[in-house]
Design brief:
10 helices; 11 strands
């Protein structure tokens, strides 16, 4: 391995210019690039982006979608220096910024910006530090020095680009660094690195030869969301598609399972009516009380009859009184679900 090539310094660079540099290099002479955050998507393990969606963006056939959690991403950016500070405090390692955009010495498509670099206090060895933040309900992903796979791919990619042996994360999720901070470390693994770059080489080949990836192996919920972003709303005037025989099993399974869902919904409505019937006398006894109890020889039956208050706009009144405001605040949402009906011939 050789030292990476520093393409440019991104300090003070506008976000638009930074994205241009990341996409094709500062001179615009790299046809296709891969960044650290792309690796998990290419492997189909990203929680946010599918391989097909990323491929279309790289080909220039689709614009990157607007981030639904823009405020959360901005907060993550604000928390980076805090995560870096506590990593330095707790490890004694020297942490510093490096605003360079680097290119892999052997794979010109591989570009990287690092959150921070560090030098180990024990031996002065260099390393790459990734600063992350998450919500409390995601903290378990970092328990016992675990590293989410999509972030592991990212850091292993960076270690290869930087040609250094040591990596670490500093992930925070609260205001108590004693309990709300994870700092798992990662050592360079050449065998895993070779596997990663073999896949990335194939990905670049697919871009060069115009061979799009499929949704095979991608989480089904993410795949459906991604396809909705890619293709948008359905077009009612397009012709009916004739499916080949090889899809008969999948289509019949959809029809069968949708029938089971309808049966479950019908059973649920029946049970809810029975619950309601049994509840009438109980409600009469409760009157305006919120809680009740029935004690038996083996247990207690706890009864709640609590008023829940919800407020929502009266859309009919809003439309009548303020039609212009109503039109301005209307938010359109699109969704598409596959439905299969069996029609005897």
């Amino acid at each position: 391995m050789a030292a990476p090539i520093m393409l440019c310094d991104t300090a003070g660079m506008s976000n638009e210019r930074w994205l241009e540099c990341r996409m094709h290099g500062p001179k615009g002479d790299i046809p296709y690039t891969i960044g650290g955050s792309d690796v998990a998507a290419i492997f189909g393990v990203s929680p946010w982006t599918t391989p097909l969606e990323l491929w279309l963006i790289k080909k220039g056939r689709m614009k990157p979608p607007k981030k639904a959690n823009a405020d959360q991403l901005q907060m993550g950016h604000f928390l980076e220096p805090i995560a870096a500070y506590w990593y330095a405090q707790k490890t004694g390692n020297h942490v510093y910024e490096d605003t360079g955009l680097y290119q892999h010495a052997d794979h010109p498509y591989a570009l990287a910006n690092f959150d921070r670099r560090f030098e180990r206090a024990s031996d002065g060895e260099p390393g790459i530090l990734e600063c992350k933040s998450c919500t409390y309900h995601k903290a378990d992903s970092w328990a016992d020095d675990a590293i989410p796979l999509y972030y592991e791919f990212q850091l292993r990619f960076y270690l290869s680009v930087a040609d250094v042996q040591h990596g670490a994360f500093s992930c925070i999720w609260g205001n108590n660094p004693e309990n709300d901070l994870a700092m798992p470390e990662l050592e360079r693994d050449r065998a895993m690195e070779d596997m990663i770059f073999e896949r990335l080489d194939e990905w670049i080949w697919s871009l060069e030869h115009d061979v799009p990836p499929t949704m095979a192996g991608v989480d089904s919920s993410l795949a459906m969301e991604s396809l909705a972003r890619i293709y948008g709303a359905s077009q009612p005037k397009l012709p009916t598609i004739e499916f080949p025989k090889k899809y008969e099993h999948q289509l019949r399974q959809i029809a069968i399972l949708q029938g089971k869902v309808r049966d479950c919904d019908a059973a649920k409505r029946t049970y809810e009516k029975e619950i309601e019937a049994h509840s009438v006398r109980i409600a009469e006894l409760m009157k305006d009380h919120e809680h009740g109890v029935l004690t038996t020889t083996t247990d207690k039956l706890l009864i709640d009859f609590v008023t829940k208050r919800t407020k929502r706009p009266d859309s009919k009144a809003l439309k009548t009184k303020y039609p212009t405001v109503y039109d301005d605040v209307m938010k359109e949402s699109l969704s598409r679900k596959v439905k299969v009906s069996v029609q005897p011939i």
